[in-house]
Every structure is written in C-alpha cells, then in structure tokens.
What does this fold into?
Amino acid sequence: MNENNIRKAYEIAKERYAAIGVNTDEVLDTLKNTPISLHCWQTDDVVGFERNEALSGGIQTTGNYPGRARNIDEVRADLEEVHKLLAGTFRVNLHETYGDFGGKFVDRDEVEPCHFQSWIDWAKENNFKLDFNSTSFSHPKSGYLSLSNPDKEIRDFWIEHTKRCRRIADFMGKAQNDACIMNIWVHDGIKDLTVERYRYRRILMESLDDILSEKLPNMKTCLEAKLFGIGMESYTVGSHDFYAGYCASRKVIYTLDTGHYEPTENVSDAIPSLLLYVPELMLHVSRPIRWDSDHVTIMNDQVLDLFKEIVRADALKRAHIGLDYFDASINRIGAYIIGTRATQKCLLSALLEPKYMLREFEDEDKGFQRLAMQEEAKTLPMGAVYDYFNLINGVPVGEEYIAKVEQYEKDVTSKR
Ligand code: RNT
Ligand code: ZN
It folds into this structure.
C-alpha cells in the first residue's frame, strides 16, 4: 500500500477530528498501550494437551478447517505469527488444560505452577503477559455440575482444581511482575427443569467463598456469567444475576462475555451499572449467532457500544480486554486477526468519539445537536487513523494481512 497516501490520509483525518475536540495522536497512544488478551484456544479448537479429546461441557466448536495446532509448539508458533500481524500490546490467555505436562497425565487436582514455567519463559521472550483460566469442562468429572455439585467428592475435586489454578495465576503474576487475570467460568447447568435452582446457587456461592478465601497478591480473579450452555438449556447456575450479586458483594471482577446474553440484547448497558458496584471488569469479546456460538468477533453494534460505555465512563483502566471465540471452519490464524482488529477498531471508534462536545450538548439539553453529532461521528475517517496505526507500528495495513495469513498457511498450517 502507498505509505505516503496513508500518511496523507491520516493528516487530513487528524485535522478533521481536532475540529471536534479529539486528539488522534493521543488516541493512538491509548490504543497501542491498551492490552488485549489473546485466547490461546482459537489455535486448536479448545482441545488443549490433557487428553486430546474433543471439547465437551456446554460449549462446542464446529468446523474442521485444516491446520489445527496439535501440540504446545504449534500453539505457540501460531500465537507468535498472530503477534507479528498485529499492532499493540498483547497478553495470552491460557486454560489450565494447556499446561506443559511433558507427556505425563496430570489430573486437574494435581496441576502445579511448574507445568506453566515454559509458558512463562515463552511469554517473556515474546513480549506477552499471561492470563489464566481454571477448566471445568472436557473431563470425566465435569458432568452437569462442578463447583455447585451437591456430591462433596466431586465438588471438592473442582474446588481443589480452582484453588490450584489461582496459585498458578499468582505464580505467573509474580514472574511477569504484573497481575495475572484468572477467569473462572464453570459450565454448571441443567438440561431440563430442575427444582434445585436455589440449592445449586447456594453451593456455588459457598464453593467460591472457600476458593477466594486465599489471599494471593499477584493475581486477580474474575467470574464469568452465562445464559445457557449446550445440553444445559434450562438452567445455568452462574447466571448474570448470580455473579452480579456475588461480584458486587465480594468485590470481585465480573467477566462479561458478549456472547452470553440474548442475541438481540445489547449488553453494553450492563457496563455502567456493573462499574458502580464491582471493582473491575473482564471482557470476553465474542459474537453470538442465535446462541453462544463463539463466532469470530466483528465490528458490530454490540462491541462498538460496549467500548463506548467503557470509554464514556473513563473506565478503560478498570476493564481487561480479552477475546473469546473459537471458529474451526475458517483459517484459525486469520480468525485471530479479524477478531483482534475488529476489537481494536471498536475501541478506536469509542476513543475517537467527540465525548466533550457530546457531553456539553447533553448538559445544555440540546438533543438535536447530540443526535446529529452522534450520526456524523459514524462516518468520520476512522479507517485512515487505523491504517496509520498499523503502518507506524510496522504491521500489514488493511487487507494486506490476508496474503500474510495465506503465506503462513502455505508454509506451516497446511502441512499439519
Ligand atoms: C464459555 C465461556 C468461556 C469459554 C472459554 C473457553 O461459554 O465463554 O469463557 O469460552 O473459557
Ligand atoms: Zn467467555
């Protein structure tokens, strides 16, 4: 692409935004320094290295596009390639099942920080920080209920697992000198009409209280709510209300996954409420189609509005941004780039909003002016700003990345 034209287009855009009180250079700094946590599980369809079996437990990947990463080296190689094609600051989000188990079977209640030492070393070499997730799915003891299971033996197994995971996250956080964000999502739910809705939620609350009682200074725990899971359509123990109440009362980070709400619901309005009561937010930026289908994130109203609410609340420092989707039907590396770039564009769009002007209109009760400016903002030259961002950070601009992904496919993933 013509570099001069990209620079020229940026200069014009910069002036255009300056006229409405937006400093694009500052915006680009913020965009560059706002970390996005890349989920490791798009590389391999959420299989991991524990038992090499297909995913189960409320979530599902569909598709069999060739080139799935089959081992730790391939997962890392793919993430390194993704990193090369993106500008910004990145973290890598691991599930417990992606431990470096060295060919041995390590059950979930046996996992240790040492199983993640090579990830810590790799992350450091590749300029990533790590985030972490306990893993309740894809295990013979998963069943319908894990942390909310009335059977003490099964429940204790998962409590032990989750406690160990928090210690691993703490170990990672200490090694990287930056808190590791550990997400707890349990698939717990019931397929048909349970009469024990209250009981399972009470048990989950007690299990979480037990798990969170250990103080670990180098990690932060977050809890992910959900509407329903595959095969668990009637009831989800960890619903939005459950976790909103839990996180507010215990001062814990709430994880909002954009795929977990009614498909026609715009979840962005949850942000300004949650921000009043929970210390921070974790975002799983995803795209549902009819259900929590985990399609690749695109630039749509849900994600645009999500970031607008965060930026308008001046809460970017209180929001951890992570991706969560797993599409096995298209090139997986390409899926990362599309989803990450879409997320960045939504954040950029929020940062470029003429916030001060809009607030002034609102204070002065100028409804027409506010709506007019919101409409105008939609067609301002944001693309020129984003192209320039990629150019100055030395990564492919616009559709240039398509050829790079194709090249990696030719050289690497097609040979798997
Ligand atoms: C499932 C949750 C959860 C998972 C990952 C693999 O509905 O969104 O975050 O997608 O942990
Ligand atoms: Zn999620």
Q: What stands out?
A: Residues 152-176 form the longest helix (25 residues). The pocket of zinc ion (ligand 2) is lined by residues 185, 224, 257, 284, 324 (CB under 6 Å).
